[in-house]
């Protein structure tokens, strides 16, 4: 049961974009071995049908009990003193357990809002390269279009120049002939 909770938690962590190193550090903190961590990460990334087969194949009761025991020990180590200190401060300030719970829930709501905002930012950033590629392609298209227009203008200019040369040559010929006749 504990293994399934850890697996579900790791799946959620991966889905929210938390990197594997952070996940591994968290799993190490709760007392899992590198082999167990790698196994959980594999299962978290595997298709659902593959995970069910591997969970059924391994006896998880003893592992779950060991994880629960190690987790309980670590929690006791890390939270015994701060918990007593928090309770002492709460009593001094006259804060009830219900007020503490309400404050924690409000804080959790703010964290969820921040997490949602981060998700939107991640999504916007992931779309940026596509937008930039589209802009670059649009600019390249416009440059190519201007290039072909420039070539057309240049060709027309050369054609016009040749026509004017021929007109000049014709006018010169006419003038020379008129001067000879005089």
Characterization of this structure:
By secondary structure, the chain is an all-alpha fold. It has a domain at 1-93. Helices cover 90% and strands 0% of the residues. It contains six helices and no strands. It has helices at residues 2-15, 20-29, 34-45, 48-57, 61-93, 97-181. Helix 2 packs across helix 3. The radius of gyration is 38 Å and the shape is rod-shaped. The termini are far apart.
Blueprint (SSEs and pairs):
Blueprint (H helix, E strand, L loop, with lengths): L1 H14 L4 H10 L4 H12 L2 H10 L3 H33 L3 H85 L1
Helix pairs in contact: 1-3, 2-3
Structure summarized in a few sentences:
The chain is mainly alpha-helical and 182 residues long. The protein has helices at 2-15, 20-29, 34-45, 48-57, 61-93, 97-181.
- Helices and strands, in order, run as HHHHHH
Give the termini distance in whole angstroms: 120 Å
Radius of gyration: 38 Å
Helix content: over 70%
Q: Report mean pLDDT, rounded to a whole number.
A: 77
Number of helices: 6
The shape is: rod-shaped
Which residues sit in consecutive blocks of at least 5 with pLDDT less than 50?
A: 50-61
Q: Which structural class fits the helix and strand makeup?
A: mainly alpha
Largest sheet: none
The percent range for strand residues is under 5%
Number of strands: 0
């Amino acid at each position: 049961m504990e293994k399934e909770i850890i697996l579900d938690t790791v799946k959620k962590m991966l889905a929210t974009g938390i990197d594997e190193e952070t996940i591994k550090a968290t799993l190490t903190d709760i007392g899992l071995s590198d082999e167990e961590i790698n196994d959980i990460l594999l299962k978290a990334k595997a298709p659902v049908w593959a995970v069910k087969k591997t969970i059924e194949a391994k006896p998880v009761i003893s592992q779950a009990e060991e994880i629960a025991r190690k987790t309980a020990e670590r929690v006791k180590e890390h939270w015994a003193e701060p918990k007593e200190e928090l309770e002492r401060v709460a009593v001094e300030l006259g804060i009830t357990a219900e007020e503490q719970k309400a404050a924690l829930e409000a804080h959790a709501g703010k964290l969820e809002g921040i997490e949602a905002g981060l998700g939107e930012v991640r999504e916007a950033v992931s779309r940026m390269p596509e937008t930039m590629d589209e802009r670059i392609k649009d600019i390249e298209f416009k440059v190519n279009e201007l290039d072909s227009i420039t070539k057309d203008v240049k060709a027309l200019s050369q054609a016009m120049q040749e026509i004017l040369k021929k007109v000049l040559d014709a006018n010169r010929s006419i003038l020379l002939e008129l001067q000879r006749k005089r």
